[in-house]
Amino acid sequence: MAKEKLFEVKDLRISARNDDGEEVKIVKGVTFDIHKGEVVALIGESGSGKTTISLATLAYTKPGLYFAGGECRLYGEDVLTMPPLQQRDLRGGKVAYLAQSAAATFNPAITIGEQVTESAVLHGLLTQEQATERAVELYHALELPDADRIGYRYPHQVSGGQLQRLMAAMALCGKPDLMVLDEPTTALDVTTQIEVLKAFKKVIREENSAAIYVTHDLAVVAQVADHIVVLYGGEIMEQGSADQIINRPTHAYTKRLMEAVRPKPAAGQGVELTHEHHRDIDNLEVRDLTAGYGGIVNGEPTIPILKDINVSVRNGHVVGVIGESGCGKSTLARVMAGMLPPARGDIILDGKKLAGDLHDRKLDELQKVQFVFQMADTALNPKQLIGNIIGRPLEFYHGLTGKAKHAKVSEILEMVELPPAFASRYPMELSGGQKQRINLARSLAANPEVMLCDEVTSALDSIVGANVIKLLTALRDKTGVSFVFISHDLSTVSSFADEIVVLYAGRVVEQGPTDEVLEPPFHPYTRLLISSVPEMRIGWLEDTMKKREMAVGIARGVEITARGCPFFNRCPMAIDGTCELKSPPILELDNGHRIACHLTLEQLEEAEAEAQKILLGYEKLGQEDPQVHVP
Amino acid sequence: MTEQASKKEEEVLAELDSFAELPDAPPKRKFRLTWVGYLSSAIVAFWLIMCLIGPSIAPFHEMDMDGDDSFLNAHSNEYGTFHLGTDYLARDTLSRVLFGARNTIGISLAATLLAYLMGITLGILAAVKGGWIDMGISRLNDAILALPTIMLGLIVIAALGSSIPILIGTAAVIYATSVFRIARALGQDIMVQDFVEAAQARGEGIWWIIRSEVLPNAAMPLATDFGLRLVFVVLFISSLSFLGLGVQPPASDWGSMVRENLAGLTYGSYAAIWPACAIASFTISINLIVDDISAKSGGSLAKKMV
Fold first, then answer.
1. What is the pLDDT of residues A409-458, one digit of tens each?
2. Residue A275 maps to a domain
């Protein structure tokens, strides 16, 4: 590559001081270059220093950190030693930063247009008129709807994916030399992630700007990066072209990262049930459940979230609930746990009807259904010792005290693969993955029959998350506990669940055994979800966008309608005059596999065959892809 | 460009396999104050000891008018030495400061503690129960909060007579209103946390939730406020004393001593300065201790997690 060198990071070292005044090295001598028009990806898990390094290109460190050495040269000029006034010109002018959460970056009280143009005008790069003109150009380039007028809206009037793209417009407005993107798609749903990735990629090409792309997701990196830098503990493990790192990694850590990327969801990945606990008895069942928030008028909640849900959790089974954010999957678990009484419908535990409100449930009923919260950080009381957190359910449900309780706490800690000595620690003194284990251990201590896990791996790094899934699998084998496993990540669900329930806008669109749901025929929405999971293959993004369901499904958002099929506006096969008016009938297939759709089985199969035909090129590649064959 | 990745490979893998996501050294949980904290603790301890033994080590009785004249600086005569001079009635300032410690610190500490007891109990109750109970207590609280504090104090004391228990009770009720506001706001914040919801989902009773989940998390911000509230109470008691409704003369308290001797400043007398220093040293020290503790327990641990 004979491209001009734009930015040079040379032996960069960043440190912090601990309480005793000792130096703690955060970044330990990192060197890499960025050429014009090139996207460099910094990849690593939390704590690898990737955000710290990316901020150093703006000559900025988070409070408490300091530059211990090295250089960051933009066009040969070291930005770290620049006088503060020049650094101000640099930030937002020459180097633009895109934070992870657009929702937290935009000021809700100012229109989007004003915020997008603010930095370019402030740096005197453009006049307000020029900046506004440029912003509208960028809105078009980023394929935002209603591009000419979206600038007059307020941040809450656009969707999350749109806001993320608008933030890119904000960064690009002043034509920066370098763009720093810090995990811009991590918090998004898969379908939204594609929409954002596609727009980013296009605009980076068109503007020919250089970018640093910070992420922990290798599959995303494969779509956007030219050059990849793999970080661990503040050091570079390996760097090279995207092709080399993705297809021929040499370092053991990179290989490990690749393993943690879950295979494309497909049939046959689930764990075989071997243990004796597995019986075909329903543990927990919900029938014709309707729930929502606000008051209840005529048996319908004011703000309906879930409608006519039927799910049964068989003894020792794992039911995965999947859907995009806002589809009601967490609400379903909350209703099961009694935290939100349903408007209509029954919750049945071991053949007995449960009260809708947990205050009316008996102690043993509460003990049998345990809820595991998503964020271990907030679900564990920071002022309680781990021993007390795990010990409380033992005491509360089983009356254990003193030595017996202490022994059982140690036993449970060992079950979640943590040393018993952790009992005398506070939650703050543990890492994210360890906290999540404690969170699981607390529910486990109740000795439940059903555990409701709400996105328990979403906040964790891929390797840590994979370890938690391994632990859950082992726990199921050991204890015979049933799980309701809620996640937006189809790959995680497909590797752990026996059955899958696909929720869309509060309704079940497809459900059945994992292998059946992940094999054609699909509900059109399930196919959209499966196609949206990024693959670790260069060029996947372009291929997948050729699919018909992507074109229709990605461009539009969820619309919650009172009648008809909720998916009709994003469905490539929607039948006008039917789908938006009538509730879809349920197609009963083998093994309890159900699809809620107006199309006939033949039509769904036909559509699948057609999609495959369009994607002949994709198919060929797919056969070469070793991951398709993972059993 | 893979030459830099070679020798650490095994180490990295070993680390990943051992679940050692954090260094496994036992965390330091030793409680150490900064030198400011130690100095402040010493000052507070000194005044608390003076509350107990002050009157017995004072060179004069608080009521003895033994000085040569009013508003004199340090001097001695046949009765003894006046180390800090005399006040407006020729009484020994040092002795009155020592005697006053018991009244000022005793009354304001008692009143503040009582205010906290009432404020926290009702505030947390309102936050946890919500609904009509919250509505009832909160509106009543607003009504008391709307009345000017001195006015309210005057009316109550004028009606019930001035005695130390009534003084404590009045100050406690008045300041419980602001404690209530803080406790309720804190309680509401904590009640929506996941760990409280987890306890509710477990079926825990309300008292257990208050005691084990809410109070430990509200303790630090409330303690920070305690220092400030104590200062307000000292000033409130002093104001009442100045109006003749607080600590009754000739008994001494620091607040009224400042007021009584203000006129002396024009004659170059320090009689008003010494009790003011006493108030300042006590209240500022309390605030510094609280700041030190909260910085130690919150700030540094959070920093460690970065």
1. 999 998 888 888 888 888 888 878 888 889 999 999 998 999 999 888 87
2. no
Residues A475 and A532 in one domain: no
Residues in chain A closer than 8 A to B10 (CB atoms): 252
Is residue A11 pLDDT above 70, yes or no? yes
Q: How far apart are CA A628 and CA B246, in angstroms?
A: 85
Single-letter residue type at B306: V
CATH number for the domain spanning A110: value is: 3.40.50.300
ipTM more than 0.85? no
The percentage of residues in chain B with a pLDDT greater than 70, rounded to a whole number, is 86
**Whether residue A69 sits in one domain with residue A135:** yes
Nearest to A452 by CA among B204, B190, B198: B198
Nearest alpha-carbon partner for B202 in A487, A406, A436, A379: A379
Is A266 a member of any domain? no
Half-sphere exposure of A187 (CA within 13 A, CB side): 13
Residues A424 and A464 in one domain: yes
Contact A237 B195 (CB under 8 A): no
Helices (H), strands (E): how many in chain A? 24, 22
Give yes or no: residues A139 and A228 share one domain.
Answer: yes
B99-118 pLDDT, tens digit per residue, is 988 888 889 999 999 999 99
Contact residues, chain B, for A381 at CB < 8 Å: 195, 212-213, 216-217
Q: If you measure CA to CA, which chain B residue comes closest to A32?
A: B1
Same domain flag for A78 and A121: yes
- Structural domain span for residue A296: 282-517
- pLDDT above 70: residue A184: yes
DSSP H or E run through A11: strand A5-17
> Chain A contact for B130, CB < 8 A?
no
Q: Is residue A267 part of a domain?
A: no
Identify the DSSP state of A80. Answer: T
CA atoms of B229 and B178, how far apart (whole Å): 9
Distance CA A583, CA A201 (A): 39
Rounded CA gap, A602 and A478, in Å? 42
Helix B149-160 to helix B164-191 angle, to the nearest 10 degrees? 140
Asked if A494 and A518 count as a contact pair (C-beta separation under 8 A), the reply is yes
Domains of chain B: residue spans and CATH? 103-296 (1.10.3720.10)
Residues A19, A140: one domain? yes
Residue A2 has pLDDT above 80, yes or no: no
Whether the full predicted model's pTM is greater than 0.80, yes or no, is: no
